[in-house]
Design a protein that fits this description.
The protein is mainly β and about 700 residues long. The chain contains one helix and 65 strands.
Length: about 700
């Protein structure tokens, strides 16, 4: 990935909505959108110009040649062949209620939108919302609208009150012009469609038809249906695991048990496309089933992330309080730009991974610890049904936290286990564990016990428990991390704090507040996640986006939000930095993305230096990247004659340069030198790069 670039890591397994246009099938998953045409699969995300990820309505209109996307937050994207127009009028309405877009129908350049706030009218010529009809229910009540249908110059709407209809030639703002069908208030209607020459309504178990201005039951469905579609006078119904066709007034099955959880259906002759809630997109022909799905993690619900040897491991275990009532099989692994689903037979609700003495170990909410290499559980009665929330390793031990246990902290030497009791550690609900540079262990607790964090020094058998007098902003600690300066940082619901010496604990330990521009950083604000990159720069996540600060906290480097970046949501749940690649993985409430930083874990020498791209050609306009240098190296760029053009310091073992010299001029074509040295000048390296534009 190029420095400063983003990548989405959504699961596309939960297929929800379908649309078709110009021979392209579009499929919206819970988070994310993709398309398939002529066997070419393409992810459509913010890199393609989209505004969001949680698609709630999808339709393609052939006449204006535009894909319409509605999102749960009320934003609408008009996706043309060569550009995207974002309309945020509805999302900006100051209402507490949901603003989701639920359906589109169009008449010429007029597009009617069903929303949770009412019906909106979008003018495609001006690309603006021209009207908004909200108080159109019985007696002028505000309605939520789920589905729309145009029929004989009238607009029919399924609302939370029942079915409404109005002639398009009257004043639609006046609720008196909307006919309310009282009998439909109990229908649990899902969609309106044309059946023969009449209008019909699908509910889960019944089909209703409009006759003499009254909606009557036409027939009882053979099972609950999720979708209905009419193609060339043929009507098809979709249930969880079957496709039916209406044939001479009887619903007969066409396809059964060839998919798992049908949500939407497109029929093209003898080809059926199904948005499946477990399998993504399924293409069914008479003799073939084909799963069509972009690469991604197993699920979007992520309980934790670990990075090990340059690989990202993502876990989907349920909350440990519910792990005995819910079973999640497997975990997701990201390696060399590919996601893989991994499973371990009879070992479920996997919560983490660690490497100890060259072997991999997996933890579980409810099943203890698994020795991956020997393919067996770590045997001990104390681990039977144990909920292991986190693991870390020192030279001699694999350490783990045991949730809701009288023995909350354990260690394993490869053969035997030993534990600290809850009386010693002061908690029964440890949630995560990190180690200092000298193997002092810091344990984050549930906010229900004590004051959020405990430290244990195994070499001295010394335990320190935080107290109200310790200066921590809140006992609700959301994340902890140790940086390269051996400081223990924590983020809480009332801001961040840190202990200056993570390897030296005493009863007098006092937390410090970080300052930025003369003020306490994020004072009294909920901060949710923390990470340090290869240059020890501070990254903080909150409910207002993602921040990066320089190592000394003198400079705010970035503030990324949903509005100004690739972030799918401003609510950050967890951060994980990969020191090998320099990628920062960002888990939000709307899914996982990554950002390519210009840093990497510090190295001890210049033995792996790479300059790229080299040469720089006309088709590249990004930064020059130098990786693999000695940690925190001083980098100088010079002409062949030795004139210094620019100098900077590496972030860990990586540095980027925008090719702008000290004087503000951009570097011209030519060959240039790079000088690399460590702090004391003992580790040196000289290289060259060329610009050929």
């Amino acid at each position: 990935m190029a420095i400063g670039s983003w990548k989405s890591h959504f699961s596309y397994a939960e297929g929800r909505l379908l649309a078709v246009g110009n021979g392209t099938i579009f499929c919206a998953a819970t988070h994310g959108l993709f398309s398939i045409k002529d066997d070419v699969l393409e992810v459509i995300d913010k890199n393609k110009g989209l505004s969001g990820v949680s698609v709630s309505a999808l339709n393609f209109f052939e006449e204006p040649q535009v894909l319409l996307i509605g999102y749960e937050d009320g934003i609408i994207d008009l996706v043309y062949t060569d550009h995207v127009v974002s309309i945020q009028t509805l999302s900006n309405i100051e209402m507490i209620t949901s603003k989701a877009i639920n359906d589109f129908v169009h008449q010429g350049n007029q597009i009617y939108l069903a929303t949770d706030m009412g019906i909106a009218l979008l003018d495609l010529k001006t690309e603006q919302i021209s009207d908004f009809y909200s108080e159109i229910g019985p007696n002028g009540s505000v309605v939520s609208v789920q589905d729309l249908f145009l029929h004989d110059d009238s607009l029919f709407a399924i609302s939370n009150e029942g079915i409404l209809a109005a002639n398009l030639n009257v004043n639609l703002f006046d609720f008196n012009n909307w006919e309310f069908y009282q009998e439909t208030s109990i229908f649990k209607s899902m969609s309106i469609f044309k059946f023969s020459n009449d209008l019909a309504v699908l509910s889960e178990d019944y089909l209703f038809i409009k006759s003499n201005d009254i909606w009557d039951t036409l027939l009882v469905l053979p099972e609950a249906m999720n979708k209905v579609t009419s193609i060339n006078q043929n009507t098809y119904f979709l249930s969880d695991q079957a496709v039916y066709e209406m044939n001479e007034g009887v619903i007969v099955p066409l396809i059964k048990d060839r998919f798992k959880s049908g949500h939407d259906l497109i029929v093209n002759g003898e080809v059926f496309w199904i948005a499946d809630g477990d399998l993504g997109l399924i293409n069914i022909t008479e003799d073939m089933n084909q799963q069509v799905i972009p690469n991604g993690p197993m699920y979007d619900d992520i309980s934790g992330m670990d990075i090990l040897n340059g690989d990202l491991y993502v876990f989907h275990a349920p909350d440990p309080d519910t792990s005995f009532s819910e079973t999640i099989e497997g975990y997701s692994k990201f390696n060399k730009d590919q996601w893989e689903a991994q499973r371990v037979e009879d070992f479920n609700n996997i919560s983490g991974i660690a490497q100890f003495k060259g072997k991999l170990f997996l933890s579980s909410y409810g099943q203890g610890i698994y020795d991956f290499e020997d393919e067996k559980l770590v045997s001990n009665p104390e681990l039977n049904n144990a909920s292991i929330t986190d693991m870390c390793t020192t030279d001699d031990f694999l350490w783990f936290t045991n949730y809701m246990s009288q023995k909350p902290l354990g260690r394993y030497d490869g053969e035997s286990l030993s534990f600290l009791s809850s009386a010693q550690l002061g908690t029964t609900t440890p949630l995560c564990i990190v180690e200092s540079l000298e193997n002092v262990l810091w344990v984050k607790n549930s906010s229900t016990e004590r004051f959020g964090v405990v430290a244990f020094d195994p070499s001295k058998n010394l335990i320190w428990q935080a107290k109200p007098s310790s200066g921590i902003p809140s006992k609700t600690i959301n994340d902890i991390e140790v940086n390269r300066e051996d400081e223990l940082w924590m983020v809480t619901k009332l801001g961040p704090a840190y202990f200056s010496e993570a390897s030296l604990i005493s009863e007098e330990d006092q937390a410090y507040f970080p300052y930025f521009e003369g003020k306490i950083l994020f004072e009294n604000e909920k901060v949710t996640a923390i990470a340090f990159d290869g240059g020890d720069r501070l990254w903080l996540g909150s409910e207002r986006g993602l921040w990066a600060f320089s190592k000394t906290l003198q400079t705010q480097i970035y503030h990324f939000t949903h509005e100004n970046s690739f972030l799918p949501s401003n609510t950050i749940l967890e951060l994980a930095f990969d020191g090998e690649s320099g990628a920062l993985y960002i888990l939000t409430e709307e899914g996982l993305v990554s950002y390519q930083t210009n840093s990497s874990a510090p190295l001890l020498s210049n033995s792996q230096v790479t300059i790229y791209p080299n040469p720089i050609t006309a088709n590249y306009d990004g930064d020059l990247i130098i990786s693999g240098v000695v940690g925190d190296a001083m980098i100088k760029f010079a002409t062949i004659e030795g004139t210094i053009l620019y100098e900077t310091r590496a972030n860990g073992s990586m540095v980027s340069w925008d090719l702008i010299k000290f004087n503000g001029d951009r570097l011209l074509n030519g060959v240039y030198l790079v000088f690399v040295t460590d702090m004391d000048g003992s580790e040196k390296w000289v290289g060259k790069f060329a610009i050929l534009r």
